[in-house]
Amino acid sequence: MKKTTINITGMHCQSCVTIIDRALKKQVGVKTANVNFSTEKAAIEFDEKQTNENQLLELIKKKGYGGHIIKEHGHHAGHGITLEEKKKKVELKRLRFKVILSAIFGVPAFILGMFFMKNPIPFQEYIMWALATPVQFYVGRQFYQGAWAALKNKTSNMDTLIAMGTSAAYFYSVYVVLFAAKGHQYFEASAVLITLVIFGKYLEAVAKGKTSEAISKLMKMGAKTALVVRNGKEIKIPIDDVKKDDIVIVKPGEKIPVDGVITEGHSTIDESLVTGESIPVEKGKKDLVIGSTINKQGSFKFKATKVGSETTLSRIIKLIEDAQTKKAPIQRFADNVSAYFVPIVIFIALITFTVWFSLFHAEVGFAIIAAVAVLVIACPCALGLATPTAIMVGTGKGAKHGILIKGGEALETAHKLKYVVFDKTGTITKGEPEVTDLVVGKGITEKKLLEIAGSMEKSSEHP
To answer: Among 78, 214, 379, 411, who pairs with 400 as Cys (CB 3.0-4.6 Å)?
Structure first.
């Protein structure tokens, strides 16, 4: 069995996750598939004899989404991370532009529709039509694309609800302007709804960017270069070029590039990054050293045993990334509910329209807006996003504070814990003494006390 991770683009909501998830699980040879909307990744375990990574990627593309296979990398693989960060920045910029554009057109439409209803200005309905059109078809284009992709896959999603709801309000208003002059139009309703949803998507993208910062910081912790011995010469090479069995030289104060075994020399190493222990560890010949930990005093040579994605730090990063992709049991329940949710909402919206129009004899416009309210209010995004977002933020925050969480299941059962047993130094304390208070006796100032203490400590090595 082989494991792979695919980065997916073009997902709009939790229903997109359900479409891809089902398609992957139906593929011959796929054992497990976890698609996560928050991280925009699919973690797949499959039998290489029955299928391969390219076939899985093609399957995702056939469903109307984009993507690329994430190659295994070490903690030092800055290139890949930079590319992903660039893509996120571009997406954030695109959403910010759409929010601003939508507000520029949507807010005046809202003001005209709400405050000039009884005393309209000349050509008000045509001005509102002109304001609402770019919001509906340029800013809101992604909702039509998402709804069409869902329709092709014989399903529906949040985009279906927004596209149907805002289109109903927009096209009814066009009908009123052209054919029923006395009717009330609702251009501001469609423009404001799209503006609010796009603003929500922008805030969501900002939150996603913040939670992935912890992993980015971990990846930047590694050394960038290594001093290796090749053909009897010492040469400095990029960390990516270090191979297994290379002899690596580490000087005092340097980061150890990769995992390995000391062949010559002696030193003390700060391993707090991995163990949490603040006291440096004595190391000599045949002792193991861990990549990204810091060499303190001595100089030594070691043989590289683990490079790239095999290093300890890389495996820690992989653990956090896997945790963010795994689904908690409660999320599977939310996924199942959201799959049936959209058709039920559309059915309720139709009933709402029928009841208002037929039983209460309301105007067509009012009945449509009542149905639109049901469609838009019921968008199932929160249902599908709450759990993966909580897992992503939880594991990201944990990593930031040095706590590694293996997945949603661990977080979900954490509330049942009665006792937590800690190793004190370096785990719940920093292991680095610091001055917290200055208490002076009579007849002495704080400045004088610090001068005396400073002069006594001047030549001391005590912490």
So the answer is: 214
Q: In the beta sheet, which residues pair with residue 8?
A: 67
**Catalytic residue set:** 423
Residue with tokens 């990054």: 273
- 126 contacts 177 by C-beta, under 8 angstroms: yes
Q: What angle do CA 444, 445, 446 make, to 5 degrees?
A: 125
Instruction: State yes or no: pLDDT of 348 exceeds 80.
Output: yes
SS3 366: helix
Nearest CA-CA partner of 41 in 163, 158, 239, 215: 215
Please report the domains of the chain, with CATH numbers, ordered by start residue: 2-71 (3.30.70.100), 80-215+326-398 (no CATH), 225-317 (2.70.150.10)
Q: Cβ(158)–Cβ(361) under 8 Å?
A: no
Rg over alpha carbons for the chain, rounded to the nearest Å, is: 30
Rounded distance, CA 202 to CA 196, Å?
Answer: 10
Q: What is the pLDDT of residues 145-171, one digit of tens each?
A: 888 888 887 877 778 888 988 998 899
Which region among 87-91, 267-271, 389-393 has the lowest average model confidence (pLDDT)? 389-393
In single-letter form, the type of residue at position 6 comes to I
Is the per-residue pLDDT at 365 higher than 60? yes
Q: Which residue has the higher pLDDT, 78 or 23?
A: 23
According to the model, what pLDDT value does residue 338 have? 62
Please give the pLDDT value at position 211. 60
- Asked if 278 and 431 count as a contact pair (C-beta separation under 8 A), the reply is yes
Residue at 36: amino acid letter:
N
Q: In what order do the strands lie in the sheet with 267-270?
A: 281-283, 267-270, 294-295
**Strand 233-238, strand 66-70: pairing:** unpaired
Q: What is the mean pLDDT of residues 331-345?
A: 73
